[in-house]
Amino acid sequence: MFAAVDLGSNSFRLHIGKYEDDGIRVIKSARDPIRLAAGIDKSGNLTQQACQSAIDSLTRFRAILRDYPLTAVRVVATNTLRVAKNAADLLPELERAIGYPVEIISGEEEGRLIYMGVAGVLADAGEERMVIDIGGGSTEVIRGLGEHIRHVESFGIGTVNQSLAFFPDGAITTAAFERAIISARSHVEDAVHLFSFDPAEVNVYGSSGTMRAIADTIRRNGMGDGRVSLPSLADLMQRLIDFGHVSQIALDGMKPDRAGVIMGGLAVLIGFMQEFRIEVITPVEAGLRMGVMWDLQLRATKADRRDRSVEEFARRFHVDAARAHGVADTARGFFDLLKPATDSYARYLYWSALLHETGLVVSPTGYHKHSAYMIANADLPGFTTREQRLMSTLILGQKGNLKKISEMLADVDFAKAVLALRLAVMFRHAHITLDLDKVRVKLKSRIDLEIRRDYIKEHPSISFWFQKEQEWWAGIGVDFAVKVI
């Protein structure tokens, strides 16, 4: 059983689902329409009131989560927490409220998860498709074939910011709609060529709550041809203009708590359909939260998207695969010898070792620094920002001065992962293949390494690397003893 919590710009939502019969069945949902994006002040910070609303919402969600035997929980935050200047200050409070880590995901990762959710409920594995998700603060457009993603773009325009910009006092006019639609088109016009397709050969789906609300309103009020098409959307727009003000809207299917942002979402939808020349969009009951649960299910069954991300990234930057895998296997061997309390760092160590030389594409001088920067800032589908920072720190610590990561070394298991990677890199420099019968290593109050004399004789340069390593650890007050046996 899995739980997905989506900290959106418009609403906070929760899904609890269970994998059965090759699908995920949602057994519990919750929603708080807290309008987080509307709580950003002129300086770009979330107001105290907005922060408290977010904390209160997650406190309520935590009470719901406690009632279910959950295998895994993932909490993801989207555009508003990506852009709010004080998001880093709020994050620890949100994590205390929900009881789980909160991940601020990139727009590209958001698009990937949205597409996974949609693909999980569509049967045709060979279908050419596009998915559009209009959120409160951003809109994601994803092009794919079946379950395979071809291109993802995230645009910083959504229902809340568009409604605040063009319908700030609730008045609904033709001129306001025209300006809002032109604004929406301007956000996407330079990216249209990236999604070039024949509308007759590609099915377009809408995955957001806004899309489903618009579709439901069109259907229940007999507008246009009843589909999410430009004629139907034009009919809905005119109806809203005729009402004149948000407070006067009276349409079946349009809930009062959504009416305030529906104009912005409608303008974005019309603008995007015009730019992409889309004739019809099919709403689908799936999206980010379903994608998060599918991702958790895949991780549980070892089909982890992160493995593929690492492989693709290494290939893109021409990493020597044989050497990288050699270092990764050696690092894993040393990590096992060090007997960590848990295996929580094992996979990150392995992935970091596979990517530790990506910076060579920039320069062989200080390549570990270049590698660390690349991993911290890259778009690695499946990885959270927190995970990428962790790997970046491991990679930065693969050689040289340890003072740059000394704070992280207070975590003994992390220190063991750093030591394992450093030893693996040293062994590669000395052209040594690790033989577990010839090496012993422990890390407690100090580092104790035992190595067979024949190893030293066969690979004399390792003595030089050990001497340098002793100096680096001494620089942070840790003794490194080497015993030749």
Automatic annotation (TrEMBL):
Keywords: Hydrolase. Residues 306-462 form the Ppx/GppA phosphatase C-terminal domain. Residues 21-298 form the Ppx/GppA phosphatase N-terminal domain. It is an enzyme of class 3 (hydrolase). Its EC number is 3.6.1.11, 3.6.1.40. GO terms for molecular function: exopolyphosphatase activity; guanosine-5'-triphosphate,3'-diphosphate diphosphatase activity. The keyword Hydrolase applies. It holds the Pfam family Ppx-GppA_III. InterPro entries: ATPase_NBD (IPR043129), GppA/Ppx_hydrolase (IPR050273), Ppx_GppA_C (IPR048950), Ppx_GppA_N (IPR003695), PyroPPase_GppA_Ppx (IPR030673). PANTHER family: EXOPOLYPHOSPHATASE, RETROGRADE REGULATION PROTEIN 2. This is Exopolyphosphatase/guanosine-5'-triphosphate, 3'-diphosphate pyrophosphatase. It comes from Herbaspirillum frisingense.
